[in-house]
């Protein structure tokens, strides 16, 4: 009998979609995977803003504990939720090929409110990154905390007298919940590793490492690592508005990154293009340059800001 591989996952529809993707890929290779749903702390508290909880690993910590204790063999996460420093004895087993990267706006009636001079629109999002970029473009708008899985957030938007809310395109499109009343925000720079799925396992688990190896997509792994390097050097997380996106086109790696103040009015950005073979450290290098140009003051101001 083939050895069973227990895949730990959060219980949301999107998390289950991601876990089932890994499950199907492993099944196609002849393995015997089973899902083990586990509720995370981030799924339980849907009221407190993420930046007040101490968000590093809030969606992954419970699964990490289950993995290290031997309750599961693999954990599947949205890579953007994973802290840049993995817990000791846990490693990336596979970064899957990336899906949609951009954010999108789901609106109640239409988007005419975006062009109304002086109109104070009400926008839902719990992301400081989205809030900062939105307020830079629309400084008069009001931002409202919006927590929960994508289903819960869509329901919340429908029940509120808000104009719109911001979501990751990947989250809605993967589970076929993207409303017709939505538009991609091409101008909004995404979160590091947005749209990517990762499977992690124990470092000493050679069986699971071998099983997951064919699932690994090298280009996605490189791009998301560069984005996460940028995030790590800037000492950021969900408590700091940091954006980063890298992609490869015809042998060239394109990278854009940004560090912003909470209100979006002060920001430092970078845009780089270089051969893929020379791109490995570009996230670290550009983040260090941003810190040297005043980014350290932005980070310090955010840390000292009152809740």
UniProtKB/TrEMBL annotation:
Cofactor(s) listed in the protein's UniProt record: dipyrromethane
Extent of the signal sequence: none
Gene Ontology terms, MF aspect: hydroxymethylbilane synthase activity
Residue ranges occupied by any Porphobilinogen deaminase C-terminal domain in the UniProt entry: 222-291
One biological process term in Gene Ontology: heme biosynthetic process
GO CC terms of this entry: cytoplasm
Record PANTHER family: PORPHOBILINOGEN DEAMINASE
Protein name: Hydroxymethylbilane synthase
Annotated organism of origin: Chitinophaga agrisoli
């Amino acid at each position: 009998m083939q050895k069973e591989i227990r895949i730990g996952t959060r219980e949301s529809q999107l998390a289950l979609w991601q876990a089932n993707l890994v499950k199907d890929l492993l099944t196609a290779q002849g393995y015997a995977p089973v899902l083990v749903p586990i509720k995370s702390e981030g799924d339980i508290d849907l009221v407190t803003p993420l930046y007040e909880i101490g968000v590093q690993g809030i969606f992954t910590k419970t699964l990490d504990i289950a993995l290290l204790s031997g309750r599961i063999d693999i954990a599947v996460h949205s890579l953007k939720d994973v802290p840049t420093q993995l817990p000791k004895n846990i490693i990336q087993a596979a970064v899957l090929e990336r899906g949609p990267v951009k954010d999108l706006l789901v609106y109640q009636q239409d988007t005419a409110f975006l062009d109304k001079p002086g109109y104070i629109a009400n926008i839902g999002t719990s992301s400081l990154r989205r809030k900062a970029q939105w307020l830079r473009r629309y400084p008069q708008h009001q931002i409202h905390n919006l927590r929960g899985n994508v289903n819960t957030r869509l329901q919340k938007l429908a029940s509120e007298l808000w104009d719109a809310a911001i979501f990751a395109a990947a989250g809605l499109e993967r589970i076929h919940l993207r409303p017709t009343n939505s538009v991609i925000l091409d101008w909004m720079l995404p979160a590091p590793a947005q749209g990517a799925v990762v499977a992690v396992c124990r470092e000493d688990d050679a069986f699971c490492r071998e099983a997951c190896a064919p699932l690994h997509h090298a280009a996605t792994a490189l791009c998301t690592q560069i984005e996460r390097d940028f995030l790590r050097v800037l000492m950021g997380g969900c408590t700091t508005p940091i954006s980063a996106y890298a992609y490869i086109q015809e042998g060239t790696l394109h990278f854009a990154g940004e560090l912003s103040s909470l209100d979006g009015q002060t920001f430092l950005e970078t845009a780089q293009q270089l051969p893929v073979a020379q791109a490995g450290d570009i996230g670290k290098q550009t983040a260090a340059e941003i810190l040297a140009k005043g980014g350290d003051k932005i980070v310090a101001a955010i840390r000292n800001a009152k809740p």
